[in-house]
Specification:
Number of domains: 2
Largest sheet: none
Structural class: mainly alpha
Distance between the termini: 31 Å
CATH class of the largest domain: Mainly Alpha
CATH superfamily of the largest domain: MFS general substrate transporter like domains
Shape: globular
Helix content: over 70%
Radius of gyration: 21 Å
CATH topology of the largest domain: Growth Hormone, Chain: A
Order of helices and strands: HHHHHHHHHHHHHHHH
Strand content: under 5%
Number of strands: 0
Length: about 425
Amino acid sequence: MDSRAASPELDAADRPHWRRDVAVFLSGQAVSLFGSMIVQYAVMWYITLTTKDGVAVAMSAVFGFLPQAIISIFGGVWADRHNRKLLIMGSDAVIALTTLVLALLMLSGRTDLWLIFCALAVRSAGAGIQTPAVGALIPQLVPTTHLMTINGLNQSIQSGLMLIGPAVAALLYSVLPIGAVFFVDVGTAIIGIGLLALVPVGKVARSSEAVSYFGDLVEGARYAAGHGLVRWLLGLNAVVMVLAAAPSYLTPLMVANTFGDEVWKLTVLELSFSVGMLIAGATVGLWGARLDRIRLIFGSAIAFGILSIALGLSPNLWVFYVFMFLTGAVVPAFSTPSMTVLQESVEPERQGRVFGLFGIVSAVAMPLGMAVFGPLAEVWSVQVVLVLAGVATFAAAVLAVSLPVGRAALREARAVAGGPSTGGTPTQA
């Protein structure tokens, strides 16, 4: 057992080769994510083009998100009880095996939708195990003073993959059978598992061992509910992500309805968002450690609201692209300091469960938001829905720091992570 990992503050002296380990870890994650992204796009296009059925597309989203939300409840507990590195490798292996089986079945002529839905469910469940494990593993590898930088770098890498992933997926989908495209994900998963195997990291030492998984689950929920900072961040993330569903999913519809449905216009829309994320992720990685984490979180939440309103009021396409670029830039400015504050303030032995709760929010928030904003866009125009979502986001952000519970959380946050390099364990609120 690696007792050093249980310390709230990991110093560079504890892991003299931490830069090498982090480089190998992030490289493996990037390769694995790239393959998963290709399969994600290929499956979405295959179901859309072969069925032309909105119900089938909606079902694919259900099978792609719901299992992750359910498994994240337990995935966080497993991440705190077991070796996080082995959990990531194991879930990657199961996902790769499932994808391989689906590829072989489809190449043999089996194209039943239920087979694809089953594979999507297994892949989603694997994400429910991986997400809290990855979030909790990073502080085991990275010295506390460098967490903001590495989280920003990781966000930038993911944004870069979002730029090239759709293009590569489109190329492969156009020249290969859908089953053959899946082999790419199998290959990238093997590479990712192999690279992660080279990173030395042990199981986190725990001060006390819960009697059962259920006991661990209950203790984690009580901890999050009683920890003012975690509770505040969890609530703010949930509200912002639900409301962010409007600019995330309705902007292509606004472009098509208002500015024209040419493919290049939708392509530039996605590129604007991804380039904004890429640049901002790198910027936060380079200079974010010098900034006040909480001000960055609050400021980006306010910016989400203002930019959603601006998107809805855009007078022409190019102004719309500028606002979409800025919206993409706000994403890492919100998510990176949020993750860093949690990694700095939550004890290592509880981080898996905390990130599991945030994984549930991530998996549920967007579909829930679309369940609200999708029908509204049929009643009112997309522009009106974007403006309403923006006003609600702005109001929620202001409310989050105005209420007494919000002010108490902010005081707690600044005691832990207000400075560029402070860390430690906060008091319970």
